[in-house]
Amino acid sequence: MTTSSQPRVRILTIGTGAIGAYYTWVIQRCGRTIITAVCRSNYEAVKAGGIEIQTTAWGEGPHIFKPDHVVNTVPAETYDYIIVCMKFLPKTYDIAAIIEPAVKASPNASIVLIQNGLGVEEPIQKRFPRNPILSAVAYIGVTQNTLGVVYHSGKTQRIIVGLFKPVEGNDGQRALEEFGDLCRDGGLETIVTDDIQNYRWQKLVWNAAMNPACIVSGLWTVSNVLSDEKWEKIALTTKKEITALATALGYKMPDNLVERSMITSRSLADGYKASMIVDLEAGRPIELEAIITNPIHIAEEKQLLHLIPTWYGLYKDMMVYLEQRSKV
């Protein structure tokens, strides 16, 4: 526990939706942080009563996340960690510009990117080359269907985090280890790795296969896709191709990765919808670049398209579908 003589770790969370709220709440449980949460659509609800966390992972509630400070714009104040939990939507907003006031005021802060896909770090590194970037992959099922209420499905609450690249004059490795300790001491299952891109590819196997399969098939839910013989085979083949691409790029994938991914897919609740489907139905932009476009472009640049014929075809069909949908 923190004593009065121990300095508290100053954390700013930007994007306090389901993921941001849950992970920051658990980190806060370690007892040695000062949390500032940037809230937008849920600002009034969080300011008034905090965020209710509905979960069975911590016993009977109620569980209420009450940040030390709740704001609706990014403050120009000093922090040790700036946690970004916004979706990577470069055509919709510029994350680097959004977080700039806090980063400029915090020249030694580590920027923690809890986001899906590939290529999320480069725009931040380009704008803020002196700040260490901690790249993180989240494994958790959480939703915020009601403002100020986050629902956690199941008991999984894992984070995998690594240093994107060393920064001269700033001890990113120390920051990485400290952040890992904050997560562990709060109660998160935490993996600190020196090969975070490997884990990003591992998670991509599910996201980059199931999202377009759900969309292009018109079946919309994971259970519907897996109940259809044709589309189940396409999903399985796509996962194998993405794994083969990652392997060709030098990332060692677990031997049972595809098998585990299919088991995970089948274990999801009947009617479960992949994230892109949820966003499409809500009329929101989808995370196309990081999950689909960036890895496809890597395959094109490395002349490895022959490894992903099914996935590449699915990608092309998905782009046609999205273009047609935008005209409706």
Automatic annotation (TrEMBL):
Gene3D superfamilies: N-(1-d-carboxylethyl)-l-norvaline Dehydrogenase, domain 2 (1.10.1040.10), NAD(P)-binding Rossmann-like Domain (3.40.50.720). SUPFAM superfamilies: 6-phosphogluconate dehydrogenase C-terminal domain-like (SSF48179), NAD(P)-binding Rossmann-fold domains (SSF51735). The keyword Protease does not apply. Keywords: NADP, Oxidoreductase. The keyword NADP applies. GO terms for molecular function: 2-dehydropantoate 2-reductase activity. Its EC number is 1.1.1.169. It catalyses: (R)-pantoate + NADP(+) = 2-dehydropantoate + NADPH + H(+). Coiled coil: none annotated. GO terms for cellular component: cytoplasm. Residues 11-164 form the Ketopantoate reductase N-terminal domain. It comes from the Eukaryota. It is an enzyme of class 1 (oxidoreductase). One of its GO terms (biological process) is pantothenate biosynthetic process. NCBIfam families: apbA_panE. Catalyzes the NADPH-dependent reduction of ketopantoate into pantoic acid. This is 2-dehydropantoate 2-reductase. It comes from Actinomortierella ambigua.
